[in-house]
Amino acid sequence: MKQKPFLKSWPLWLMLLTLAGCGTTPPRTGTTTSPSTASSASPAALPNWNSQALGDTLQGLQQSCRSLQKKPSWSGVCREAGTLPASDADAVRRFFENRFTAWKLQDGGRDSGLITGYYEPLLNGSRTRSERTPWPVYGVPRDLVSVDVPMSQRNRGTLRAKQAGPNRLTLAANGNIEINPADFAADPRGIRLKGRLSGSRLVPYFTRGQINQGSIAGSAPVIAWVEDPVELFFLQVQGSGRIQLDDGSFLHVGFADQNGYPYQSIGKWLVDKGEMTLSDASMQGIKDWLARNPQRRDELLSVNQSYIFFKPLSGDDGGPVGALGVPLTGGYSIAVDPRYIPLGAPIYLATTWPHSTEPLVRLVHAQDTGSAIKGALRADLFWGYGTEAGMYAGRMKQQGSMWLLLPKGLTPTSAL
């Protein structure tokens, strides 16, 4: 992909417990819905406003302005934001107070909603295979083939297709390749089938279990080799991450393609099997279970037949790119529902730390979207990358309130 937006399709805890999509897709399009707002006020009236270290959030706004500055209602605000030093917290505070109006968000009669988290994993690895790093991070296999089959044609029996490119087929009545859609796993998220050619037939691509047994060793490039297959699994869940190589440098990798199977939750499988309770089925809980049951690792991971292929991303120090098209800032970027909240807007978030009643209040930025992020009071907080970020993201299922900050003169309805 031209770097497709890093889209957190589902919050991490939900991905572990339910059927979910992963990888990257463009932000949804369609009818927008005006956010329900209770009232407007100066940012200075927001709870705990004066205790905020607003210099820490300035970088997030400056990133958003790479996209927003093209809009007349944002251009002046963005020019001024670009001149502010983050070290001058008072100047940043005055800027937000003078330039923005805060709108309290509601959803029906509610003024709080679910706040979850996501992150980028950090793995240890190498460019070469060794006893320490035996697990491959695969690029897109050369024999992976895709074809779009509309849902209206899924039940018509055998279809015919012809080659449309190195890895693409197109349906054609006179085509020389046979496709039986019933052979492929049902995936309600889209119409694209993924497979491989076996003679004159398109057959389903290899599953995770088959890939882990070496079925694509001769047909897929290896981007890197990593130490831990469990961490590699969670890299695939998140769709983007970093690998620290043995020379100390970092390799940033992102979603490139997928093998065509819908995501299956290993957390839900463990709960259904009575191996753990629903409250324990976090990322940390699953890792703890695997540590106690190493002989069942392959059995558990193979429950999710979906497999993600990666590609190197340019640069190694920026965050993943969100649906707004700008890098995300750890702790200060959120995924929202763009039908209610305009991408790029600052959001004043009042929630609590994961598994805690300790307040977590900060000014964040709506820079990403997600298919599980629905409604005016729903957000997914990007925690950054690495082990600590993963710990917070995997445990975050908090209630929170949000205020939408817009340049003075702009209303929530006109901003969408």
UniProtKB/TrEMBL annotation:
Tell me which SUPFAM superfamilies the record gives: Barwin-like endoglucanases (SSF50685)
Q: What's its top-level EC category?
A: lyase
Q: Where is the signal peptide?
A: 1-20
CDD domains xrefs:
mlta_B, mltA_like_LT_A
Q: Which Gene3D superfamilies match?
A: Barwin-like endoglucanases (2.40.240.50), RlpA-like domain (2.40.40.10), transglycosylase MltA (2.40.50.270)
A Pfam family of the record is 3D
Which key words tag this protein in UniProt?
Cell wall biogenesis/degradation, Lyase, Signal
Record region (Disordered): 25-46
Enzyme Commission designation: 4.2.2.n1
Q: Where do the Lytic transglycosylase MltA domain residues begin and end?
A: 122-311
Q: Which InterPro entries match?
A: 3D_dom (IPR010611), MltA (IPR026044), MltA_B (IPR005300), RlpA-like_sf (IPR036908)
Which reactions is this enzyme annotated as catalysing? Exolytic cleavage of the (1->4)-beta-glycosidic linkage between N-acetylmuramic acid (MurNAc) and N-acetylglucosamine (GlcNAc) residues in peptidoglycan, from either the reducing or the non-reducing ends of the peptidoglycan chains, with concomitant formation of a 1,6-anhydrobond in the MurNAc residue
Full protein name: peptidoglycan lytic exotransglycosylase
Q: Which organism is it from?
A: Chromobacterium amazonense
Lineage, highest ranks first = Bacteria, Pseudomonadati, Pseudomonadota, Betaproteobacteria, Neisseriales
